[in-house]
Amino acid sequence: TSLKEKHKILHQLLQNSTSPVDLA
Amino acid sequence: THHSTMSPEEFISRIMEAEPPEIYLMEDLKKPFTEASMMMSLTNLADKELVLMISWAKKIPGFLELSLTDQIHLLKCCWLEILMLGLMWRSVDHPGKLIFSPDFKLNREEGQCVEGIMEIFDMLLAATSRFRELKLQREEYVCLKAMILLNSNLCTSSPQTAEELESRNKLLRLLDSVIDALVWAISKLGLSTQQQTLRLGHLTMLLSHIRHVSNKGMDHLSTMKRKNVVLVYDLLLEMLDANTSS
Known about the structure:
The structure holds two protein chains of two kinds. Chain A is mostly helical. In chain A, about 65% of the residues lie in helices and about 0% in strands. Chain A has helices at about 5, 10-15, 20-24. The longest helix of chain A is centred in the middle third of the chain and has 8 residues, at about 10-15. Chain B has helices at about 10-15, 35-60, 70-90, 115-135, 140-150, 160-185, 195-225, 235-245; strands spanning about 95-100, 105. The interface of A and B includes residues 9, 15 and 21 of A.
């Protein structure tokens, strides 16, 4: 499994420009 | 402004601005706790804090210049240490108590209801007392937290490709900036040069204790998950699995 697949949420939060507070 | 051209004062001001907001558990706590209810409250809070932690890391000058692989590795290595240092900072003025959030405060004895957690509570309280003795300042605290993040994976990976080497060099320069910032913060306290050196040593030595408690905490949480005492989900599960499988 790739690192990105293994850490889907983490990867998404790092890449996303939207505030993680909104995503939460 | 790039972090390499920032003054230590400017760098600290940027990491102070990056500090996450106060977070509330927002649950009706039914006391006395059961093993399951306390573990559920602890993990719910950790999951909320983790989301804010990613946002915090992204605001540290230079962090987003590192490779995505390094960003992921650093966060998965240090997340529990960061949570624990934050807990110690919130608890520093409350001897004998652990202030997980403004609406979730525990006494040492309340740890009795969860098997194996009292030992971890005691280690957390002991490290918090040490910070209290040292009269830890907010500027120093934010520097230590950034140091934990950037130092977390330094000795467990070695760069193979040119891209990895470039990211590692950036990471080392970034650590230089954080160390400079901590040295500057200590220099503002009106201590002699020797006392400043000693304080730097004492503060950074505490980081090895935090790593130790974090490892204990990680083992404990994995055990609680394996025994189905608590259901671990979302970002916390991703971070925990990352740790237990590596």
